[in-house]
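Suppose you are handed a protein chain with no further information: no name, no annotation, nothing but its sequence. What can you learn? This example shows the usual starting point.
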Amino acid sequence: MSAEKPPAEQKPPGLLQIVASVFSAAVGIQTKKNQERDFKHGKARVFIISGIVFTLLFILTVFSIVRLVLASHS
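A reasonable first move is to predict its three-dimensional structure. Written in structure tokens, the prediction is:
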């Protein structure tokens, strides 16, 4: 017996799709199709963790840029 693979639209999103979805959602350009895919086939925990990581990286980036600019004007 061979296990049937689920169709492409029923597979859970991969790492690149998760990163793209989190970035798109953060910017506000998430498509309805991708949003439905994420809600139907994605795990909430993965998106929550990805969102937290993205937010922390964003804050650290902004903080670093501000420190760099302030240091260059001293």
